[in-house]
């Protein structure tokens, strides 16, 4: 049976003894200054402030074509230099890690150039806008790996402590043999048909719509927590509003991506799965929901209540069975020993610090960080299979396995 590794890698602990000032710094060069640029900046800053990574991240340069807009983010997070040409940023001698927070149409070119220049790379998801681009990125990553250069994909929700704990419980056999998975990522920010056109609505820039933007997270989290690959899908997609006003009032833009996607799937172990990704779920702001049902129990998670994991133990006495609400804030929970006392919850931004620490640790130890570019390629192939299926009115479509 084809599956992912069943044993999750334990996250790095802060420890009681600081490693001291002799630790080396590594320069961070980040390309992109929007929503993800701010989230990644906070992650790098908190990685150094709350953890003791074996490499200390140092802000070296921020890249962005619009110097004024990039400068606003640089001022907020103390990036010392703004580069308006990403090639100049990659060429800098004071940068060891290139962090890519740009739209998907630029990922392949930037990542491949950075790896060839001997820089470690963190790239936001999805890996690329096409399977072909993703394959080229994986090839570059494998070549760089032989020279000790590491690469990692930013599926950050893997670092939400409750989801990391869920993976651990599945790997320990606490829910038994997996039967069902339900994964949904629900947002409503496009529910208003007069909402302005953005780059996320262009296939050329974004690759796909809700499917690749948020559906990719649902797919990755399912495979990560379940520890199994999805082997086939049957899907449907829809674009509800096909033309939107431009933000500057100069006209309208054609929406060339999906607004919503639904698809079913089968995991390598035989379990059935259902997925939904939409930007039209009125009232749902950022509801990434995952439920797994097995022969010995179930797990349920909702990102809108991200410090909580619900666990049902079907082996318990019938009279006391039911879902247990686990508040994931104890020091023995993943990543939590670096933060606050029990009961003091974390937020959306904390997973970016965990991501940064994991990458810094892997680089220092000479190990391969996860998720890899190869993991991203597998998600890209699944997304392509969903689109292929939808184009054929939901015909069952196999997903190539590793």
UniProtKB/TrEMBL annotation:
GO molecular function: nucleotide binding; oxidoreductase activity
Basic and acidic residues bias spans: 14-23
Listed PANTHER family: BCDNA.GH03377 (PTHR43818)
Source organism of this protein record: Streptomyces harbinensis
Signal sequence region: none
Region annotation (Disordered) ranges: 1-23
This protein's record includes keyword Nucleus: no
SUPFAM superfamilies linked: Glyceraldehyde-3-phosphate dehydrogenase-like, C-terminal domain, NAD(P)-binding Rossmann-fold domains
Name by which UniProt lists this protein: Predicted dehydrogenase
UniProt domain GFO/IDH/MocA-like oxidoreductase: residue ranges: 166-299
Record-annotated Gfo/Idh/MocA-like oxidoreductase N-terminal domain positions: 27-145
Alphabetized InterPro entries for the sequence: Gfo/Idh/MocA-like_OxRdtase_N (IPR000683), Gfo/Idh/MocA_oxidrdct_glycsds (IPR050463), GFO_IDH_MocA-like_dom (IPR055170), NAD(P)-bd_dom_sf (IPR036291)
Keywords: Oxidoreductase
